[in-house]
Amino acid sequence: xxxxxxxxxxxxxxxxxxxxxxxxxxxxxxxxxxxxxxxxxxxxxxxxxxxxxxxxxxxxxxxxxxxxxxxxxxxxxxxxxxxxxxxxxxxxxxxxxxxxxxxxxxxxxxxxxxxxxxxxxxxxxxxxxxxxxxxxxxxxxxxxxxxxxxxxxxxxxxxxxxxxxxxxxxxxxxxxxxxxxxxxxxxxxxxxxxxx
Length: 196
What we know:
mainly alpha
């Protein structure tokens, strides 16, 4: 009898379950249906860069700007990576990027024939004949940035200098004031890519 009773109870329970599944709730007191609502996933913001460190003296003179290609942005990221690897801060990256903007518009230039300034090449237009390295080295963004930063580290007080003076002390350009025009764009690029 126990077995017959158990089968009957299980049969009734099975019918009740099946009826509920196929027919829906039998009473008005049934649990309300839950609608599926998409949930927005919020990505944590990357830490921001202290913009006061990027341009501590304010920009000097009129500022220039160029729209960058993917290759130029990749060179920005390479400069930032080399700056971090050298243990230097965001200001060093601003000085480096502004210098490369002036020297090459952030294009890793090879030998330009008659348009070359002597044997200048790469992002920073460094010259093998001046001891910056081989052509292969100075056309490597990491190497050329590291070489520039090594020169910058040797400039006493570069952190407190206007950008154009710090860059000129390393580069020894015929146009020493031209670096200043790129400070705002360089700072914007560092702010955008330093923590990316």
